[in-house]
Amino acid sequence: MRSGLEPSATAEPLTSSKGRYYRPELDLVRFLAFFLVFASHTLPSTRDPRVASLLKGFAPAFSAFSDACDFGLSLFFTLSAFLICELLLREREATGAIGVKQFYIRRILRIWPLSTSAWHSAWQPSCCQASTPPRR
Predict the structure, then answer these.
(1) Model confidence over 35-54: pLDDT tens digits?
(2) How far is CA 7 from CA 14, 15, 29, in A?
(3) pTM higher than 0.70 for the full model?
């Protein structure tokens, strides 16, 4: 007898009325992938003698954690590949074909606004800095 609390083998992900695909159980994996990639890019390297001297006895543990953060990129790409394949398979199941052109248009429309705003925010501070004339 089932209590209703066990996950079923055919559990469907939550979808909205627009037919969008969302898997809430992957939110933690998304966060973990983001955090590991972010930490990998922001943590200082223990190869720098100044950092190693500041960390003293913790340098090996810090170095191991920093190296483990490199796993985040593999996790991110694996998760992206899974979600893209899932979307393509759902499209083929629903329509009988995969519209490659429409797929890339949807990806561009999803990624372009964020990447453009990131480029603008990175470019804005550099163009607004006061320039000082070179010393003679």
Answers:
(1) 999 988 888 887 888 888 88
(2) 14, 17, 19
(3) no
